[in-house]
Structures are given as structure tokens and as C-alpha cells.
Amino acid sequence: MKIPPAKIYFSEKDKSEILNRINESLTSGQLTLGKNTREFEESFAAYLNIKNTVAVNSGTSALEIPLRIFNVKDKEVLVPTNTFFATVLAVLHAGAKVCFVEADPATFSVDVNDLKNKIGSQTAGVIVVHIGGIVTPRINEIRELCEEHGIFLLEDAAHAHGSAYSGKKAGTFGHAASFSFYPTKLITSGEGGMIASSDEKIKNEAMLFRDQGKVSFTQNLHGKLGYNWRMSEIHAAAGLVHFRNLESFIEERANIARIYDKHLKGGNVITPLKIPEGCRTNYYKYIAMIDKNIDRQILKNHLRDKYDVGLSGEVYETPCHLQPVFKEQFKEGDFPLAEEICQRHICLPVYQGMKDEDAEYAAFSLKKAAEDIYGQKKIENIK
């Protein structure tokens, strides 16, 4: 494909160092919870300017472990309906009930007014998701709301490595945060996640939970009902080395975003989602809204088939309350704002190694594809 939806990039230098580190692990026999994991944790904590980080085997684990520490069993956790289903699964597997919250069309994050209305006597805490790498400018208000009610704030920062609001990085606003290093993310370890918190108690308990609840690596004494949530040294090696590129990756993606902004500026059919003032996004996704008269799937298919351009996956195509597993509990229309943004957005391709001319071609092709399907006159008349 001329312009794929996404692409994973490791430089030759990085691949060489990763292989050297893996070789050291294989030679030493230290294949889990070794120096690569410690270095990755320390580097990530220093970058966030936060005291504690704990590496685990996935972003989902990085959500479930804090939820278990917060003792959510049989309580209620407020979760945005516009999120990846793993956010919901972490709550359910931790033994809590999910209470969905409406979306804010300006940021794709939670609607704060609906959040306020949903807090009740059974509420244990709130999960805020930084969709597409955008930190809602109301994040401090949400934190204060949680403190006022004596409930936790957990950041799902799976999309938000390096994103920030008012100079404060994503992952440092809540009582704890989770990051993902799945292959589609800016930084990947193949599989993996990271818990971040300024609370020493959360760090200590997370280290127990990730290793079967063992009180010591060398003893079979178990203080928690943990699980095998460890990150291997092989995954940690990849994550540590890849992580060193984060700032340059963000700069590269911001440049692609500027090209898209230039081409889509002033349009009324395909409109870039405005980045809130004070927000530094990592452009995990470049989100644009499409007119309600445009069929997204037809547009995507035509763009791929005629112009060889693949649009990235949405964030998200279907809100969680409309997932089949919840068909007996929710219906269309229950969360109209989330349903509309899920139906009416696209994500343009952004990846490492993407050239300026690639972005220029993708933007040009997107506009041409819309004209091909709907006609120039109709496009001009859509409001």
C-alpha cells in the first residue's frame, strides 16, 4: 500500500542495541524482572517526573492492577463509553460494576457534566481516557471533583505517551495511570504496559500483584491474590530502547499534523478536531470529523481502492455500551454524543518515517475521494 494506515519503526541502531540486550539476558539467564525492566521503569519515571513506575505485561494489566489496589470489588467505577474495550474489561475483571459516562465532542474524553451526575454512594472512582493523545483541558476539574468526593482518578494514558496539559504530562494528574506499549502505540515493547503513580503504596502493591502476589521474588510466600503480570526482559529491552525516541517521534508526527491542518483548513466536509489550548498532543491519532451525509466506510474503501491510502483505525468505531456483550443493558440513543462522534470521525495515517510528500498525497487523496463519491457540487453545498 502506498500510504498504509500505520507502520512500526525501529532504526537499525535500535535493533542492534535491542538484540545485544536480549543476548545479554539469554546469556545471564535473567529473563524476567531484571536490569532491562528496572532501566525502563526508571527512564519512564524520570521522563514523567513522577516517583514510581511499575512495568507489566500489557496496558490492560496496567489498568486492572491499580483497580485491585483501589479495592473496587462490588463497587462502581465511572468509565467513558468512548474507549477501547480493555478499559471496561479491567474494571469488570477487578470485580467492579461499570457505569458509563457520556463523551465530550470537543476532546472525545468524558463529558464532565454527565460525570458529575453519575457520581453516587457506590462510586469508587473515575477512569479518564486521553483519546488519541489529547488530554482534556478539564482534567484538573475532574481531579478536584474526585478529591471532593473521596474517590480515585485513574488515567488511561494508553494513547498519551508524551502528551501534556499546561506543561504537566499525561499520567501525572491522577492517583495512578496506565500506559500501553502495544505495537500500534508511539512506543512499543511488542506487548507491555506501565503503571505510574506518586504513591509509594500503589507502587509496592503493584509489584506484588504483577508477580503472583509474592512478597519476595525468591520466596513462595503470597500476600496478594496476584497474577502473572510480569514484563519479560526481552520486551523490556525493546521498550527501553524504543522509548528513547519518544520526543523525536512526537516532533515527526506534529509535522505531519501541520501538513494535514494546512490541507484541511477551512473545509466544511472534513474538519480536523481542534487541539485544546494548552494541550500538547503526541498525535497518536490525527482525528477529523466528517459531514453526517458522508458514509465513512464507503469513503475509506474508495480511498484505499483508488488512491492506495489506508485510514487508521477509529477511536472508536463503536462506543462500549453498544458492544454486543451489553445488548441486554443498553441501546442506541443512550449516549447520543458518543454515538455521533464514533460514527462521524476518521483518523488519517500518521506514523514514523512518513515523509512530507506522503502526508501531502494522503490529504489530497482524501479530498479527491470525497469529491469522486459525492461530486464537487454536492461537496460544496454540504454545510
What features would you describe in this structure?
With 383 residues, the protein is of the alpha/beta class.
Shape: globular
Number of strands: 15
Described by strand count, sense and barrel closure, the largest sheet is: 7 strands, mixed
In terms of DSSP E residues, the strand content is 15-25%
Q: What is the radius of gyration computed over CA atoms, rounded to a whole number of angstroms?
A: 21 Å
Please tell me the overall pLDDT: 96
CATH architecture assignment of the largest domain:
3-Layer(aba) Sandwich
Distance between the termini: 33 Å
Count helical runs: 13
Q: Kindly identify the CATH topology of the largest domain.
A: Aspartate Aminotransferase, domain 2
Indicate the low-confidence ranges by residue numbers: none
Helix-and-strand structural type: alpha/beta
Kindly report the spatial arrangement of strands forming the biggest sheet: 1-9-8-5-4-2-3
Order of helices and strands: HHEHEHEHEHEEEEEHEEHHEEEHHEHH
- Provide the CATH top-level class of the largest domain: Alpha Beta
* Portion in helices: 40-55%
Number of domains: 2
| CATH-assigned homologous superfamily of the largest domain | Type I PLP-dependent aspartate aminotransferase-like (Major domain)
